[in-house]
Amino acid sequence: MSNTRIAFIGAGNMAASLIGGLRAKGLDAAQIRASDPGHDTRARVSAEHGIQTFADNAEAISGVDVIVLAVKPQAMKAVCESLRPSLLPHQLVVSIAAGITCASMNNWLGAQPIVRCMPNTPALLRQGVSGLYATAEVSAEQRDQAQELLSAVGIALWLEQEQQLDAVTAVSGSGPAYFFLLIEAMTAAGVKLGLPHEVAEQLAEQTALGAAKMAVGSEVDAAELRRRVTSPGGTTQAAIESFQAGGFEALVEKALGAAAHRSAEMAEQLGK
Questions:
Q1: In the list 28, 61, 150, 265, which could disulfide-bond 130, CB 3.0-4.6 Å?
Q2: CATH fold group of domain 173-267
Q3: Which residues are annotated binding-site positions for NADPH?
Q4: Do 36 and 12 contact (CB within 8 A), yes or no?
Q5: Does the pLDDT value for residue 17 go beyond 90?
C-alpha cells in the first residue's frame, strides 16, 4: 500500500475507522482522500486525519487506485451510477455496504474489479473481523490492497463464494449485538440475584472481554475451553445444562439462519 492512493466515498464512522487504521499503519495522509455530502463530517475527518476531503464524489476518485464505497446500502445505486462516467478500468472498487451484490454493482458501475466486504462494528476499535470476496477481474495485487485495507482495523478473511457473505453477516456482521444482548441478560439476572446494577454490569462486561481474549489466544477451541471450566456437578455445569435444556444451540442456529436469510433478502431488494 506504500504507493496506493485511496478515495473513500462516504466519511462516516466505518470510513473514519479505516482511515485511522491506515494512518496508524504508516500510510501518508496525501495518499488518502474522502468525499461526503456533510460539511461537518468532512471537516471532522480532515481535522482528525489530515486528509483532503471533497463534496463531489467524482472529484474525489480522480487519479486514485482504490475506491472504497462506504455509503448506506439504500444510497449505493445512486452513488454508483453517478460515479460510472468518471471511473477508469484499473480502479479497484471496495464495497463495505451490507446486502449489495457484486452483480448489482457491476450493473451500476460497469465492469470494474470489485471486492465486496462485510466488516463489523468492533472495527471502530480496530478489533474487527471482515469477510472479503473478490470478482474475477480483481488482480493479485488488488487482492493484497483490499487485504491490507481491511486488516488496518482487524482481521480480514477471504471467501471462495459470494453467497458466503450472508453467513458472515449472520455470524460476525450482526454478531456484536448478540453478545450485547447476552451482557444485558446476564446483568439483569445478576441484579435479580441481589447485585447492584453497576456491579452486575461490570462483572458481565469484563467476563465477556476475558473469555473472548482467552478464546482468541488459546491453542484449543471454544468447546474445550468450556469443558475445562465446567467442573462435574459444579455451578458452571448447572448453568450450562439449564442453557441446553432450553434449546440454546438450536436457538442460536435459528437466529443466525434468520440473519443470513434477511441478508440474502436485502441483497435482492436493494440490488434492483
A1: 150
A2: ProC C-terminal domain-like fold (1.10.3730)
A3: 57
A4: yes
A5: yes
